[in-house]
Write a structure and sequence with these properties.
Helix content is 39%, strand content 21%. It has 2 domains: 82 residues, no CATH class; 111 residues, no CATH class.
Length: 210
């Protein structure tokens, strides 16, 4: 069982312990099976290459390292941990073909206030008055336009994890609103706690690219 989502100030300590635990699990796993289930590519006997938010990362389980592409800045530990948890969690199950909201995920109701604050609210503050700018910002991490709401994008965060973001422009009667949708089977690839962190990181990156 993954640790509960810490407060922002407690991330580093909790992530360091989870980072070591995830690598320990990866060292014990059949790497060919990991690649088959996750969509990663084998690189030698003890490393894989995985595409995450439009970049290819090298995961070396012997060295205990997650390395970015040459010339790119190192990934923050939150991104590295998502990559590792994805690799050790992936079941290889096919998509369910049904989009659901965060509240419909396992324990989604428990995490929803935190999720909304760190994702949807963040994007509404940045793009609520001009939703179309969301599409331009998402292109920086490989996002593509989706036909929903006043503006929407789908970000292929990992080979088998896509996240769809939708915004509705506010008016005199209603404030701007937003939503995030996932394939119902996303729990086959990431724990709900990691989905919160993944979406927060995507939202921050889209705001940065705006």
């Amino acid at each position: 069982m993954m640790p509960t989502l810490p407060s922002p100030g407690g991330y580093e300590q909790a992530y360091a312990a989870s980072h070591d635990l995830a690598f320990a699990k990866l060292r014990q796993a059949d790497l060919a099976d990991v690649c088959r289930k996750s969509g990663a590519e084998p690189v030698g006997a003890d490393a894989v290459r995985l595409r995450f938010l439009n970049r290819d990362y090298l995961v070396d389980r012997l060295r205990g390292e997650v390395s970015p592409p040459p010339g790119a800045e190192p990934a923050p530990i939150s991104d590295r941990l998502i990559i590792l948890h994805y690799l050790v969690t992936a079941t290889g199950a096919p998509p369910r073909g049904e989009l659901v909201a965060f509240k419909d995920l396992p324990e989604g109701h428990m995490y929803y206030p935190t999720f909304y604050k760190r994702t949807v609210k963040l994007l509404l503050k940045k793009f609520g008055a001009s939703p179309a700018k969301l599409v331009e910002a998402a292109a920086g991490i490989g996002g593509v336009k989706a036909e929903m709401g006043d503006a929407a994008v789908t970000v292929q965060a990992l080979p088998k994890v896509a996240v769809t973001w939708i915004l509705w422009r506010g008016d005199d009667e209603f404030p701007a609103e937003g939503s995030v949708l996932f394939d119902r089977g996303i729990a086959d690839y990431l724990p709900t706690e990691d989905i919160v962190v993944l979406c927060q990181n995507i939202a921050l990156k889209m705001c940065l690219f705006a």
